Protein 1
Amino acid sequence: MGDILHDLIFDYTLRNVALGSALLGVVSGVLGSYAVLRRQGLLGDALAHAALPGICLAYLLTGSKATLVLLAGAGIAGWLGTLLLLRIVRDTALSEDAALGIVLSTFFGLGIALLTLIQQRNDANQAGLDRYLFGQAAALVSDSVVTFAILGGIALAIVALLGKEFKLLAFDPQFGATLGFPMQRLDVLLTSLLVIAVMIGLQTVGVVLMAAMVIGPGAAARQWTDRLSVMLALAALFGATAGVSGAVLSVTQSRLPTGPMIILCLTVIVVSSILFAPARGIVWDVLRQRRHRRSLTAPALVPEWEGGQS
Amino acid sequence: MTMTSEVAILLTGVLAASACSLLGSFLILRRMAMMTDAISHAILPGLVAGYFLANGPNLLIGSFGAAVAAVVTVTLVEALQRTRRVDGGSAIGIVFPAMFALGTVLVSRFFADVHLDTDAILYGNIEFVNFDRLFIGDRDLGPQSLWVMGGLGVINVTFLALFYKELKLTTFDPGLAAAIGISPILIHYGLMATLSITAVGAFTAVGAILVVALVIVPAATAYLLTDRLVIMIGLSAVLGAVAAVAGYYGAVALDASVAGSIVTMTGVLFGAAYLLSPSSGVIAKARRARHNQQRFAGEMLVVHLFNHEGTPQQAAESAAGHLVTALNWSSQRATQAVSYATRRGLVIQSADRLALTDAGRVAGRQLVDR
C-alpha cells in the first residue's frame, strides 16, 4: 500500500495515468450526471463514436498529432453529430433511439474508412491515431494531462457558474422558459460541455467504453441522494475513484489494460450503489418486502404487544 | 467451383446487409435500435471464452460463447431496467461497456501473445473472407462467411415469415396482442434471440460497427420512404444490399476499409432519403409548408376583397399597396398572395387595383361560409 502511494506521487507514468483518469472521472461524472438526469446517457456513446472522423480529418488537414488539434477535430465532429441527431429527431418520425444509432454507426464507419485511408498512405507519423479507438491511458504524457486539466477546469467552472440554470434545464425546462431563461441556448451549452468530457475520455478509455464513463458515475450517485449538489459531488468522487483505482490496478498488475480496468471498477461502484445504497438500494427493498409479506401472513389475531408487527 | 475474392466479398456484404437489415424494421418501430449496439459490443467476452474453450479460433464454439454473452447482455439490461433505478438508455450504457471491458481485459490478460485482433472486432475483415474457407473433410465448400451469412438470411426470413403477424401486433398494439393470447414478452425474447444470432454471425465477418449500421440505418431509411410495414422490410433489405455494393466499390476506389465504406454508404442513403423522400423528406416538407403558406395568404386576400366588395371602402381596401397595413403583411407576403390569387384566376390586377373575378367571388363565398 505504501509502495503504491509512493509510486502515485513519484512514478512519472503512474502519476500521469492516475491524474488523467481521475480528471476524466471528475469531469465526465459531473457532466454525465446531467445527461443521466435528462435521460440522455447514450448521447455520450454517440458523441464518442461521432468524434472519430473528426480526429482523422483533423490529422489529414493539419498533419499534426498534437492532442489539442485532434481533440478539436473530435469536438467539432461530435458537435456536428449531436446537431444532426437533433435534426433527425425533429424532422422525421424516427425515435431518438434510432437517431442515436444512425449517427453513431455512420459517423464511426466514416471514421474507420478515413483511418484506413490514412494508414494506407503509409507514413510513419500516423501511428497512434487508432489509440483513440480503445484508449491508451498508459501512454498519457504530462502534456495531455495539462490539456485535460485546462479543458476540464473550464467545463467545471461553467457548471459552477450556471448551476441554477442547469438545474432548471435538468428538471423543468418549461418552467425555466417561463422564467425567461434561454433554455435552448443552455441546452446547447450543456451538450457542448459533454463534448469536452468525451474529448478527454477518448484518449483514456477509448470510443466504446466512453458511454460507461458518462453514465456510470451519475447513475451510481443518483442512488445515494435526492439532492443535485450532493449527486454531482458524489459522481465526481465515484468517477475519480474508478479512474485512480483502474489506473493503479493496471500499472501494478501486468497485462491489464487501463481503460477497461477503469470501466470495470466503475461497474463495481454502480452495481453496489444500485444494490446497497441507503433508501434506494434493491437489497433493502427486497428485505422490506419479505418482512411485509411475513407480517401479512402472521396470524392477524395476535395482539401487537405479543409480537405481532404493525 | 472457385470464385474471385471480389465476388466473395460482394456476396458476403450483400448477404450480411440483407440479413441484418431484415430485423431492423421491427427494432426501429419498437424503439430498441440501441439494443443492437449493446449486443454487438457485448459479445466480445463470449468470443474470448469460446476461443479459450476451443483452444483456438473455432466458429461453432466461438459463436456459442458469443450467443451466451448476447443472452446475458439482454437479460442484464432488462433486469437493470426493471429495477427502475436507472432509465432504459442508461441501463444499456452501463451493461455493454462492462461486457466489452471484460472482454478486452480477458484478451490482454490471457491472449496477449495470440492473434486475436481487437481492431477486427470493431470493423471486421471482410477483405479476407475468401481466405477463410469452409471444409468438410477435404472438400472445399467456398468461403465460410458466405455460408454463415446465407444461414443468417434463412434464419431471419424464416423467423419473420413464421411470426410476422405476432411481431406486427406486439409492435403496434401490445395490449391487444396480450388480450388475444399472443405473449408480447415471448415475441420480444424471440426477436432478441434472432438479433443475437445475427449479430454473432455477422460480427465475425464484418465487425461490430457494421452490424449496428446494417441493422439500424437501412431500416430507418426505409421508414422515411414508406408507411407500410411489408414494404419497409423489403426496402430495407434492398437498401442494405445497395449500400454493400456501392460501399465495396467506393472502398476499392479509395483504398479504404470495406466495412467503413459500406457503413458510410448506408449513411449516404439515409441522408438522401432524409432530404429527398417524397413523403417525409425535409425538402418535400419545406415545399409543402411554403405552398400551404401561399395558399393561406391567397385565400385571405380573396376573403378580404370579398368582404369589402360593394362597400364604400372598396376603393381604398382593394389597392394592392394597402394590403400591408390592412392585413399586417410584409410586402413580400402581399406580393406572394397577389401572385397566388392571380395565377389561380381568382383576382385580376389592373394598375394598383385588385378585383375579384367571378371564380374569385364564388371562392370567397365558399371560404366565408366555411
Protein 2
Amino acid sequence: MSGAEDIKELIEQSLETSHVEVADTTGGGDHFQALVVSSAFEGKNRVQQHQLVYQALGDNMRERIHALALKTLTPGQWQEGTR
Amino acid sequence: MSEIEEVKVQIGEAVANHPILLFMKGTPTFPQCGFSQRVIQILESYGIEFRSVDVLSNPQVREGIKEFSNWPTVPQLYVKGEFIGGCDIVVEMHENGELAEVLVAGEPAEARSEG
C-alpha cells in the first residue's frame, strides 16, 4: 500500500460509502486526511464511526499509516453540507 | 492472565479512578507528538485538572490501550470512564461546544445522545 488512492480503495472495499476523499497531507506517504460518507454511520456515535474506518484499514493503520485525520459523516449530514 | 490482559485491567482501573485521563505521547509539559500536543492545549484551555499517561515510557500500555479502547492511535481521552475519542474528535467537540459540556457536566454527550 503506497498512498491515498490505496487507502480510499481499502475503505470503499469494506464500507458502504457514498463519498470518500483521501489526501496525502505531507506527500510522504504516511500522513493522511480522509473524509468518509457512509450509510453505515447512521445511528452510531463518532467513536463508533471512526472505529468502522479503522477496521477497514486493519493492520495498515498500525504498520504503514502514521497519522490519519478523519472526518466521518452520514449521507444526510453530507447533503446538509455540515462539513 | 497474560501480560497484555493484566495491563488492560490496570488501564481499566486507571480510567475508573481518574475523572479526566489522557493517554498521550510525552508529558503535558513536553508532548512528543503534534496530536497529543493539540489535545493538551485544548484541555489546558478549560483550566481543568486532568491526569495523563505517557505511553512512550510504557510500551505495554502503548499496546494495551489500543486493545482496551479498540482504537489504533494515541492520544486517547477518557472522561468519567467513557472513551471520548482521539485528537480529531476532541478538536471537533472543542469547536462545537460539546467538549465543554462533557468536561463540566462530566457526562459524555455522545452517551447522552444515544439515550
